[in-house]
Amino acid sequence: MATHDEVAHNWAHQTGRKQNGPNMHYRDTVVFSYGSHFPIARYVPDASGARVVLFNSASYSVSTSKHQGKVRRAIPHGVTVFTVPRLGLNGYGWDHEHAANHAHLLAEAEQAFTLATKARKYGPMHLERAERFIGMANAYSDAFGLGKPVATMPANMEEVRANVAAREAAEREARRAADEARAKRAAEVEAQRTEQAMEWVKGERDHAPHTSLPYVRVKGDTLETSYGAKVPLTAALGVFRLAERCAERATAFTPDETIKLGDFRLDHISPEGTIRAGCHLIPLDRARMAASLAGLA
């Protein structure tokens, strides 16, 4: 049994080999997802006899969508592909099928254009999609000799394009203003937390605010962190001295033996002197500040 990629490739190149996969198969010019109830694509001749692909615009499930992706990727470069709902397999005759497909492409263009006139964002994408479907409808008519009048974008296209551009600009400005307001508020909150943390370090408040990295303070013979840990001061000072040496020499330190810090243990000191003990990551400058305020520096 062939893989789905092999089924897609062999159908796309019409080798006649490896026609059956677990949930995909092809017969002659048509490739199917699961049973014959869902054709993915079909090779048909256009009015000049050239081979083109009618690719099913519908989908059925997540796995069928994956099958469709494999088939689309396998189609050789240069082969014209029309994504349409009718593949000429329902017994209605090609006149009916071609008319339905052409009408579908025009309807898709109209829907995309309508979305562009209303969308607060993605307006340019909808306009581009509308133009693409108009082009596809004209190409479909030409390919199969339908003799349909050349489809064009609505007469107010440029007005709509200008309105879309204006809405996009307004949306961008609104997003910029919102981002700026959020950043300003975040900076204000951070400044407030820093101020409160410094009050805690100086012993002016009992509870420390949440900060991304802990602050430390000396209280009697104990070193406290703003994350709630308490460490004997003598043990903490020994680790601080190690951190100073690491920073001076720009070398890291990982203890070979356990160095206890109260209920914690020293895990690592970075070349910058940052101390890691459990969930605590203490920058050297915060340790220095605590030592200085306590008169230990």
Task: Based on the model shown, name its key terms.
3-stranded antiparallel β-sheet, 13 strands, 297 residues
Helix content: 40-55%
Number of strands: 13
The radius of gyration computed from the alpha-carbon positions, rounded to a whole number of angstroms, is: 35 Å
Order of helices and strands: HEEEEHEHHHEEEHEEEEEH
The unreliable regions are: none
Helix/strand class: alpha+beta
Q: Oligomeric state of the chains?
A: single chain
Average pLDDT reading: 91
Structural topology:
Elements: H1 4-12, E1 24-27, E2 30-33, E3 39-45, E4 51-56, H2 62-74, E5 81-84, H3 94-118, H4 123-143, H5 157-201, E6 216-219, E7 222-225, E8 230-232, H6 233-249, E9 260-261, E10 264-265, E11 268-269, E12 275-277, E13 280-282, H7 284-293
Parallel strand pairs: 4-5
Antiparallel strand pairs: 1-2, 2-3, 3-4, 6-7, 7-8, 9-10, 11-12, 12-13
Helix pairs in contact: 1-2, 3-4
Describe this structure in words.
It contains seven helices and 13 strands. Strand 12 and strand 13 form a beta hairpin. Helices cover 47% and strands 16% of the residues. It has helices at 4-12, 62-74, 94-118, 123-143, 157-201, 233-249, 284-293, and strands at 24-27, 30-33, 39-45, 51-56, 81-84, 216-219, 222-225, 230-232, 260-261, 264-265, 268-269, 275-277, 280-282. Helix 3 runs antiparallel to helix 4 (123-143). The strands form four sheets. The protein has a five-stranded mixed sheet, sandwiched between helices. Strands 6-7-8 form a three-stranded antiparallel sheet. A three-stranded antiparallel sheet has the order 11-12-13. The protein folds into two domains: 4-159, no CATH class; 216-293, no CATH class. The longest helix has 45 residues, at 157-201. With 297 residues, it is an alpha+beta fold.
